[in-house]
From TrEMBL:
Name recorded for this polypeptide: Uncharacterized protein
Gene Ontology CC, one term: membrane
Transmembrane segments: 227-253
One Pfam family per UniProt: DUF1191
Superkingdom of origin: Eukaryota
Signal peptide residue numbers: 1-27
Keywords tagged on the record: Membrane, Signal, Transmembrane, Transmembrane helix
Organism whose genome encodes this protein: Stephania cephalantha
Length: 303
């Protein structure tokens, strides 16, 4: 009996391990993308460290820690007045004249981001593949560089649009991108799609993060993948059901077998009694077979 319980517990361990592997492999697939908001804050902090006695209008490269490798950032400090007249054209972001940072401050800084190889771990565009790295920019109050809290500003433009010029080096093909590609801007988890303003150029009226995307054509392939996923789940449950069914069946079979052995023992005893009566008849050998069989089976099952 103890032996039987041991066998059964081993089966349960196998089932538990199987389900654990199944569930954990699913959990691994659901890797949450890193938070863009916290990245913005971290890059802003690093950028303001780079602004130590800065020259107005000069672009400074931001030192990026190893934990953010693959990402590039730069920063420029500007006077609102001259910015209004001239605009600024740095880091693939062309901001025209007549753009105002709001609320109004004397001096402000623009932090430029190029998420490079990390783009897809911070931003996702379901149904599209990202053809370029994500480029972003944001304005911050830089009137007092030693102040602790840094206020984020809005850059608002009503006339000329801000252009994001994706350089050739970022494009998947050297000829540039045709009309099947789209611009996407990311705004607090929302995606805004628009046509390219010019080849390889996206246009915007506010700061944010931008990327050029291409629709994924193989919709059928994705459906197939989903089908395979469900088949996999079905198989897993089917397999578990089979194991449990087998286990229950085995127990029932053993129980029945033992009952039959008991019955046969009883029968053998009876036939033995009868056998003595039947001495000399042709039924003698078959009676002996019946008698020896339960003894062998009985030896296999420890009581
Ligand atoms: C999962 O997310 C972490 C950051 O949270 C990242 O370092 C890792 O590369 C991601 N893994 C996959 C498979 O996406
Ligand atoms: C901005 O700079 C890019 C290259 O850095 C250049 O191609 C573009 O003409 C510039 N735009 C203006 C308005 O100067
Ligand atoms: C700048 O901020 C620091 C720290 O908050 C403060 O001590 C200092 O007075 C501020 N300077 C000006 C000019 O407001
Ligand atoms: C910036 O603009 C957004 C909407 O475009 C608005 O919700 C937010 O209050 C604005 N912030 C400032 C400081 O003006
Ligand atoms: C756009 O370019 C891709 C390859 O880069 C090509 O497969 C596709 O047919 C082109 N679409 C148009 C409308 O030219």
């Amino acid at each position: 009996m103890l032996f039987k319980v041991f066998i059964m517990s081993k089966w349960w361990v196998i089932i538990v391990i199987f389900f654990y592997l199944f569930v954990s492999s699913r959990a691994e697939n659901m890797n949450e993308s890193s938070s863009p908001g916290s990245l913005d804050a971290e890059l802003q902090n690093l950028a303001f460290e780079a602004l130590n006695r800065p020259l107005t209008g000069k672009l400074y490269k931001v030192a990026i820690p190893a934990s953010l490798s693959g990402i590039e950032a730069s920063v420029v400090r500007l006077r609102s007045g001259s910015f209004w007249f001239r605009g600024v054209n740095y880091s693939h972001i062309e901001i025209p004249s007549r753009v105002v940072p709001t609320p109004f401050v004397q001096r402000f800084a623009i932090v430029y981001q190029n998420l490079g190889s990390q783009s897809s771990s911070y931003y996702k565009v379901p149904g599209y593949s990202m053809s370029t790295p994500v480029l972003g920019f944001a304005a911050y109050d830089a009137t007092n560089l030693s102040s602790k809290g840094v206020a984020k500003l809005n850059l608002t433009t009503t006339r000329n649009r801000i252009l994001i010029r994706f350089p050739r080096a970022m494009l998947p093909s050297p000829e540039g991108l045709n009309s099947s590609f789209k611009c996407v801007s990311f705004d607090a988890g929302m995606l805004h799609f628009s046509e390219m303003a010019m080849p390889n150029v996206c246009a915007t009226r506010s700061q944010g993060h931008f990327c050029i995307v291409a629709p994924i054509r193989e919709v059928k392939k994705r459906k197939d993948q989903r089908l395979w996923k469900w088949l996999g789940i079905g198989f897993a449950f089917g397999f578990a059901g089979l194991v449990i069914g087998g286990l229950v069946g085995g127990i029932i079979f053993k129980f029945m077998k033992r009952r039959r052995i008991k019955e046969m023992e009883k029968q053998a005893e009876e036939s033995e009694a009868l056998g003595t009566v039947w001495i000399g008849t042709s039924k003698m050998p078959s009676a002996r077979v019946i008698r020896t069989q339960p003894v062998l089976e009985h030896g296999e099952v420890p009581q």
